[in-house]
Amino acid sequence: MWLGEQITERGIGNGISIIIFAGIVAGLPPAIAHTIEQARQGDLHFLVLLLVAVLVFAVTFFVVFVERGQRRIVVNYAKRQQGRRVYAAQSTHLPLKVNMAGVIPAIFASSIILFPATIASWFGGGTGWNWLTTISLYLQPGQPLYVLLYASAIIFFCFFYTALVFNPRETADNLKKSGAFVPGIRPGEQTAKYIDKVMTRLTLVGALYITFICLIPEFMRDAMKVPFYFGGPHCLSLLS
Questions:
Q1: N or C: which end of the chain has fewer CB within 10 A?
Q2: Under the cellular component aspect of Gene Ontology, which terms does the record hold (predicted)?
């Protein structure tokens, strides 16, 4: 945490994200080399390797496209006068990101779902803890219950985290105080409801997008027998 704060203060970027990025990138060369070696030995079919490469490039393009996506709400500033200066009417926009929650929902979801497995590794050998071991087996990555709960948790945390970091009412109040308004919408309460409606739709799209990105590696590992695991949170962290 201290090192991350120092990186952020020096203006290099978000320190925690850079540290996570470095850790992920450091593990990529050995994983790629191992995959290529398995393809050379015939353990992994060349067509599967080619399909994985195409899929990785397609997912990369898709993530970059969505991460840069915005819903721009038109905002107008009425003509106003301050002292002797007269300001003409202006038009601008309020940008709302499609994925405002970032990678946080995926990290929270995976941490919570894998928590029973962590507890089972501590106490699974004791008497009376067999039920916890059984639950942890059903919650292993690749299991149907894991996939279902993982997707549900991602969607939940997308809405939960977005509600924490973005307040439509506060945004509407700031627009009203600065003399701005959304065309066709009354300033204040009506503007807050409109922004909340737009943000809810964007959050739903963002939640489905994150869920899709995070479930692709599960498919690659189970259906295509890819020998390394490159999770959705890793992909989102790298490209964000």
A1: N
A2: membrane
Q: CB-side exposure of 22: number of CA atoms within 13 Å?
A: 8
User: Is 0.90 surpassed by the pTM of this model?
Assistant: no
Q: How far apart are CA 56 and CA 48, in angstroms?
A: 12
More confident residue, 70 or 85: 70
Q: Does residue 86 form part of some domain? A: yes
The answer to whether residue 111 is domain-embedded is yes
Give the pairing of strands 70-77 and 180-181. Answer: antiparallel
The whole domain housing 166 covers 70-225
Asked if residue 25 belongs to a domain, the reply is no
Q: How many Cβ atoms sit within 10 Å of the Cβ of residue 125?
A: 10
H helix intervals, 2-103: 2-9, 15-41, 46-67
What total of structural domains would you count in the chain?
1
Q: What CATH number should be reported for the domain holding residue 128? A: 1.10.3370.10
The pLDDT-based confidence of 105 (bands split at 50, 70, 90) is confident
Q: How many residues belong to the chain?
A: 240
Give CA–CA dist 185/188, Å, rounded: 9
Question: What pLDDT digit, counting tens, does each position of 16-60 carry?
Answer: 667 767 777 777 777 777 777 777 777 777 777 788 788 888 888
Assigned domain for 23 exists = no
Highest mean pLDDT among 4-8, 106-110, 221-225: 106-110
